[in-house]
Amino acid sequence: MQTEQTLRRLYDAFQKLDADTMATCYAPEASFDDEAFSLRGAREIGGMWKMLCSGTRAKGAAVWRLSYRDIEADAARGKAHWDAHYLFSATGRIVDNAIDSRFTFTPEGLIATQRDSFDFWRWSRQALGAPGLLLGWSPMLKNKVRATAATNLAAWLARNP
Fold first, then answer.
1. Could you tell me the pTM of the whole model?
2. Which of 4, 8, 30, 98 has the most CB within a 10 Å radius?
3. Dist CA 87 CA 134 (whole Å)
4. What CATH number is given for 2-159 in this structure?
């Protein structure tokens, strides 16, 4: 099925840190939401992947690892599970994150919506250390992470039009 091929293309490209190919998997008006980002449109989504992939290639390629499984997709909806092992560049800490993704698709088989879910407290303990351990459960820390992610992406997009 075309939608399943789209998801495999997305994650195969992500394994290789190929953000350009990843961006081609999204419809122009797509949306992406997870614990750190809330993005609208292919420019923001593609920009996020390019920012994350280029940062990983620059500072964490030696430890980068991504695996995926449990891809299921029909013409309208899909889901997948993926595990990422990476260096969180802001702190230099290693993170092992388990993510569940849910998708909707356009009639052309492109991603229309993506919602990624993961255990934010678990992630924050690994990525941030003691602050994540102590405050990872709180909306305050999640809001701070979201604000920082949005600021970083806006600055990256301004430098990379």
1. 0.92
2. 30
3. 21
4. 3.10.450.50
| Closest of 138, 55, 135 to residue 91, by C-alpha | 55
- How far is residue 29 from each of residues 41, 69, 112, 125, measured CA to CA in Å? 4, 26, 7, 34
Structure tokens given for 151: 């600021």
- Which amino acid is residue 95, in one-letter code? V
C-alpha closest to that of 112 among 34, 4, 26: 26
pLDDT at 117: 97
pLDDT tens track of the chain, all 161 residues? 899 999 999 999 999 999 999 999 999 999 999 999 999 999 999 999 999 999 999 988 899 999 999 999 999 999 999 999 999 988 999 999 999 999 999 999 999 999 999 999 999 999 999 888 887 788 888 899 999 999 999 999 999 87
For residue 151, the 8-state DSSP code is H
What do you get for the CA distance between the two ends of the chain, in Å? 34
